[in-house]
Amino acid sequence: MSQIAARTVQSMRSEADRLLDFGRRSQTDRGFGWLDDDGALSSRPLELWITCRMTHVAALGLLTGRAEFADMVDHGVTSLLDHFRDGEHDGWFATIDGSTGAATDSDKLAYAHAFVLLAASSAVAAGRPRAQELLAAARAVHDERFWIDSKHLVHERFSADWSDGEPYLGVNAAMHTVEAFLAVHDVTGDTSYLDRAEATTQQVISWAAQRDWRIPEHFDLDANPLPDYNRDKPADPFRPFGATVGHALEWSRLALSVRAARRAGAPSYDGGLVGAATQLADRAVADGWAVDGADGFVYTTDWSGKPVVHARMHWVLCEAVGAAYALGIATGEQRWDDAVTQWWDYADRYLIDHEKGSWHHELDARNAPAHDTWVGKPDVYHAFQACLLVGDQLPLAPSFATALATRTP
C-alpha cells in the first residue's frame, strides 16, 4: 500500500487534469500536432507517434470520467485508420502533411508502431467505435513485420514497401513495444503478448546485469551491442550515446508491471523482477540524480557512470516518479514513496510551466529551460501518465486504460 504524502497525490491528480486541458490544443484535421512552448500548433508535419500517444491520453482522460474526451479518442482512431495508414503496403507512415495528408516520411518505424498498438488498446478499453478494427490491423502488421521471436526484440525501421530494413536493433523501440504488449494482453486476454513482454524484459535485464545495471541501447542485427553508437551525437532524442538514465527507470517500472500481470494468475510469481527493478533504479539514481552540482536527472552517462549529456529531460523525471511509485508498492520500502514526493517537488519547481501550461521538455544543467534536444512541448504522454499513476493510485497491472475501465467506483 502506497504511503506517498497526501499532498503529493492530490497535486499530481490536479496536474493530470491540467495536462489533459493543454493536450486538447494539439488536435488537427488529420491527427494531433506538435505543440510549441506557448501551446500553439507548430508547422511541423504530423508525427505518427504523437498522434498515437495523444489518442492514448485522450482515452485515459475519457476513462477518468471526462466525457468531453470521447470525440478526441474517436478523432485519433479515425486519423490512424484513414490518414496515417498506408493503403498500398499496410502499416503506418512515420509522418504526414497536416494540410494534404500526403506522407512526408513513408518509412515504417517500430517505435511508432508500438504506439499504434497502445492507442488502439486504450481505445478498445474505452469502448470506442472502430477501435477493434484499429487493434486488429495493428496486431497483424506488428506480428508479421516487426516482432523477432528468436531475439525477443523488434525490427527498427523499414522502407514504405517493407523491402529495405535498417541494420539496427534498438532497446527504446523494444521498451515501448513491451508497454504496448502489456496493454494488448489486457484488452484481448491473449497471453502470448504477456509472454513476449516478459521475454523482452528478461533479455534487457540480462544485458544490464552484465554491465553493472547500465542498459546497452544499440545493437546490430545479430543483437551484438554497439557501445560506441552515436558517440558523435550524444544528445540524440531517440538514440543517444551511452546509458540512458530514464530508460533504466522506465524498464524498472515495466518489469514490475510484467510481474504484477503474471501474479494475477500465479500470486507467488516473481521471476527475479523485483530485484532487477531495484538494481536498475538504484543504478539510475546513483548515476543520474544531482551528480553535477544541481538537482535533476542527467540525460545520459558513459559506461562508467560519468555524465555525458547533463540536460534534464522532463520524461526522465516522469519515469523516475513512475519507477519509485512501482517500487514502493512492490517492496514496501518507504524510501521509494519519499522519492516520489522529492522528485515531484522538483518537477513542480522547475519542470511544470505554471504560466503557459504543460511541462518544459528540457532543462539545462542549472535547471533553466533549454532546447538543445527538444523544441517546444510535443505532447503530454509522459507527464500525464506519471501524474495519473500516482494521482489515481493505479495498480501495476493491468495497464493504465484497463485499470481505469475496470476499477470499482
CATH class: Mainly Alpha
- State the helical fraction: 40-55%
Largest sheet: 3 strands, antiparallel
The count of β-strands is 16
- Give the uncertain stretches in residue-range form: none
CATH architecture: Alpha/alpha barrel
3D architecture notes:
- The chain is mainly α and 409 residues long.
- It has a single domain (6-406), classed as Alpha/alpha barrel (Glycosyltransferase), CATH 1.50.10.10.
- The protein contains 13 helices and 16 strands.
- The strands form seven sheets. The chain has a three-stranded antiparallel β-sheet. Strands 12-13-14 form a three-stranded antiparallel β-sheet. Strands 1-2 form a two-stranded antiparallel ribbon.
- Strand 1 (27-28) and strand 2 (31-32) form a beta hairpin.
- The mean pLDDT is 98.
Which features does this protein show?
Glycosyltransferase; 51% helix; 409 residues; three-stranded antiparallel β-sheet; 8% strand
Describe the secondary structure blueprint for this structure.
Layout: H1 6-23, E1 27-28, E2 31-32, E3 46-47, H2 48-63, H3 70-84, E4 95-96, E5 103-105, E6 108-109, H4 110-125, H5 131-146, E7 147-148, E8 153-154, E9 157-158, E10 169-170, H6 171-188, H7 191-209, E11 218-219, E12 243-244, H8 245-263, H9 273-288, E13 300-301, E14 307-309, E15 312-313, H10 314-331, H11 334-351, E16 362-363, H12 381-391, H13 400-406
